[in-house]
Amino acid sequence: GLSQERLRRLNRLAALQSKDAVILAELGHALLRSNSAPQAMLPMRQAIALGYDDPEFALQLAANELQNNEFAAAKTRIEKILSAHHDHLGALGLLWHLAAQSCDWQQVELLEPRLLDRIDTGDAHAALTPWRLLASNASPIQLRDYAKAFSQLSKTTTANQSRAPLHAAYPRAKHERIRVGYLSSDFHQHATALLMAGVFDHH
Description:
The chain contains 11 helices and no strands. By secondary structure, the chain is an all-alpha fold.
């Protein structure tokens, strides 16, 4: 498709202009949206090393590092974002989540009041889902209000993304039999996948 062609072109450009931070950053973004998200870390790190200065970009890299169990690298990167942007909600949320995952309860206690204060302003960030906040001491009202703000943010983000109609990309097959497919980001060692196993067995 178009995204794969764009990825191939960016790979060629990055090979020809390996010191261009913008090209490397675009390649990282493209890889994040592909099936090769772990491979995005290398060009993203290279772009930052070459001076690409964007806290949201750095946060996306940190989130990717967390997903690939590179906790020390992610923590250093998030702390650097917070040193320049003290109240960055996404960075606060990721650092708080990392501290909880690492059972660093002292840091959790330090970060959580700052995090909840930021939530009280009505802001939301894609890096901090409402599900994660369930592990915090947020009140039911704070959880409700944040879920609403996060939902509005998601709607705005989705509206700004241009999507080709599905029927254009996937024309209907000529056979009469209906075929059902299952799609989820949780098809790995995850509760959803384990619970769905019985559904697949009886399909």
